[in-house]
Request: fold
Amino acid sequence: MYEAQNNGFIIGIKGLSQGRHTFRFHVDRTLFESFGNSQILDADIDVTIELDKEGRRMLLTDCSEGYVVVECDRCLDELRLPVSLKTEAEVMFAEQGAAEESGEYLVVDSSDGELDVTQFVYDYICINLPLRKVHKEGECNRQMLDRLQQASSTEENTSRETGNSPFKDLEKLLNKENNN
Reply:
């Protein structure tokens, strides 16, 4: 088993013997900051990468456990979301200049001695987060919800009074139809 350095998620694959190898990494907010992701405020995720090497073929398995902190979409308070995922990808070797990622494959230049899994780890954490990030019912900041409700009511009343409602013409049409 290998402990990763803090300078990235890089696995030395040159000279790696056949069989299964385990690498451990720790993800915190600096990973997300390095990608310019301001939506993730904090993180504490343990990542275990198993690399199973058979000849020129390698199977990479990523098991990640921990949490991220984001803003709640409803009340804007901090929300701690659990992260628990297991993903697999095959590592393919290509000739120099042809290396690029494709689908469920990580394509690596055959002359590279290292496999950088930074993008892979980042992507899979991000895509496994829910689209709607909200507290459980009753756990949102009550003061913020009250303020949003007031602002929404005030805006709705103002638009009705000034006739700026986007449904003004629809209301006229409905009223005309009901009067006939």
